[in-house]
Amino acid sequence: MGKATVGRAFSELVEKGFLALEREGNWYSRRAHEWRLTTKPMQRAKGKELPSHDWREYSGQEKTKLGSLAEPSQTSVVPFENPPGTSGSKREPVRRKKGRRFGSGSAH
Q1: Three-point CA angle 5, 11, 16, nearest 5°
Q2: Is the entire prediction scored with pTM above 0.90?
Q3: Residue 71 half-sphere exposure, CB side, CA atoms within 13 Å?
Q4: Which domain of life is it from (predicted)?
Q5: Tens of pLDDT, residues 35-89
Q6: CA end-to-end distance (rounded Å), the chain
Q7: How many Cβ atoms sit within 10 Å of the Cβ of residue 31?
Q8: DSSP result, 21-49
Q9: 3-state DSSP helix/strand/coil % of the chain, to nearest 5
């Protein structure tokens, strides 16, 4: 997987509440980010912390980056039909060749 793909996946998991950043890492101290799954309990110094289940609060209505709640565009990107014209081959139906069957041909 590419870096961009993994980055988008992490962003989506954080946005939907499945992952939470516990401690930010530091490149120069060679310390990685520490993540927490919100569906699992977490062991702390004080004891066990119950899962927060942040994903239950996600409604999905906030996401409008790609236009999911936006007005549909009036122009189509791909035409529904090929343009009429004389170029191209003639349309012919596809028929099965007679006498040809799949398998060994023997009865079971």
Answers
A1: 125
A2: no
A3: 3
A4: Bacteria
A5: 888 889 988 888 888 888 888 888 876 555 555 556 666 665 665 565 666 566 6
A6: 46
A7: 11
A8: EEE--BTTTTB--EEEETTS-EE-SSSEE
A9: 15, 15, 70
Q: Which helix (H) or strand (E) holds 19?
A: strand 19-23
Q: Which residues of 51-88 are buried (b: 16+ CB within 10 A; e: fewer)?
A: ebebeeeeeeeeeeeeeeeeeeeeeeeeeeeeeeeeee
Residues with Cβ within 8 Å of residue 54, at least 6 apart in sequence: 17, 18, 20, 38
Measured between alpha carbons, how far is residue 53 from residues 15, 20, 42, 89 in Å?
Answer: 13, 10, 12, 58
What letter represents residue 38's amino acid?
A: T
Separation between Cα atoms, residue 91 and residue 76, nearest integer Å: 25
The answer to whether 39 and 54 have CB atoms below 8 angstroms apart is: no
